[in-house]
């Protein structure tokens, strides 16, 4: 039986949700998933359906989610369904939904310099197979300053400040870029890279996303007792 994944796309068009979803769908289908793509948050209403999924991927920025849409996702992930996503599509999805932020592990708060900032992604070597064999790399895109859950497992960081601003008065700080965490029995994966589809399609971000999807989905089989930890 094929593993099943749900991609829910929408919100602010500036993050190219359709193009990013297309990339994610290609990754999943190449790895043998049956993929459903929805453009409505009502795809979250059926908790029984969500609990049968291996993976939920939100690609939805700056939206508003109702409790009857949010609560089934919280419950399904806690039961073992994986959750994975990138950039504002997962960690700037619903600014008023603190339970969503609690589950995902972080929330975007700033991108000093906006788009087009050259910065380095520093891989935390030995942290996870998700980033194994990947060297530090440069990107030219938004540099995400995140507020994060201290429970996350950090796999990659970026150093601020690159662009001057009030935050620079604090001196150098390393902000998480890629992380994993647990929500009940469910595995949660996030990468802050992905302002536009061309960044998602870069070799390193693409590889990290693919591995993150597979890692998060594997948690479902573990939760169901189909594979050992």
Would you mind describing this structure in some detail?
The chain has a single domain, classed as Rossmann fold. 45% of the residues are buried. The mean pLDDT is 97. It has seven helices and eleven strands. The chain has helices at 17-30, 47-51, 67-79, 87-91, 98-104, 197-200, 203-223; strands spanning 4-11, 34-38, 55-61, 82-86, 106-110, 117-123, 137-141, 145-148, 153-160, 173-183, 186-191. The strands form two sheets. A nine-stranded mixed β-sheet has the order 2-1-3-4-11-10-9-6-7, sandwiched between helices. It is of the alpha/beta class and 229 residues long.
Give the termini distance in whole angstroms: 20 Å
Low-confidence stretches: none
Using only C-alpha atoms, the radius of gyration works out to 16 Å
Structural class, judged by helices and strands? alpha/beta
Compact overview of the structure:
The chain is of the alpha/beta class and 229 residues long. Helices cover 30% and strands 31% of the residues. The chain is globular and about 50 Å long.
List strands and helices in order, with pairings.
Elements: E1 4-11, H1 17-30, E2 34-38, H2 47-51, E3 55-61, H3 67-79, E4 82-86, H4 87-91, H5 98-104, E5 106-110, E6 117-123, E7 137-141, E8 145-148, E9 153-160, E10 173-183, E11 186-191, H6 197-200, H7 203-223
Parallel strand pairs: 1-2, 1-3, 3-4, 4-11
Antiparallel strand pairs: 5-8, 6-7, 6-9, 9-10, 10-11
């Amino acid at each position: 039986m094929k593993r099943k994944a749900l991609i829910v796309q929408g919100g602010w068009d500036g993050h190219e949700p359709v193009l990013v979803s297309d990339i994610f769908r290609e990754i999943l289908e190449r790895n043998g998933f049956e993929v459903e793509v929805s453009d409505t948050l009502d795809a979250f209403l059926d908790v029984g359906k969500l609990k049968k999924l291996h993976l939920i991927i939100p690609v939805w920025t700056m939206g508003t989610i109702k409790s009857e849409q949010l609560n089934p996702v919280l419950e399904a992930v806690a039961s073992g369904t994986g959750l994975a996503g990138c950039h504002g599509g997962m960690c700037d999805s619903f600014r008023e939904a603190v339970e969503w932020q609690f589950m995902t592990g972080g929330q975007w708060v700033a991108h000093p310099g906006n788009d087009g900032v050259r910065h380095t992604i520093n891989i935390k070597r030995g942290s996870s197979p998700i980033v194994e064999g990947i060297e530090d790399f440069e990107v030219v895109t938004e540099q995400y300053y995140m507020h994060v859950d201290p429970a996350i497992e950090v796999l990659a960081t970026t150093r601020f400040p690159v662009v001057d601003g009030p935050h620079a008065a604090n001196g150098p700080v390393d902000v998480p870029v890629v992380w994993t965490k647990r929500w009940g029995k469910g595995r949660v994966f996030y990468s802050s890279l992905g302002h536009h589809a061309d960044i998602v399609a870069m070799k390193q971000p693409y590889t990290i996303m693919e591995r993150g999807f597979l890692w998060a989905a594997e948690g479902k089989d573990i939760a169901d007792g189909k594979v050992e930890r």
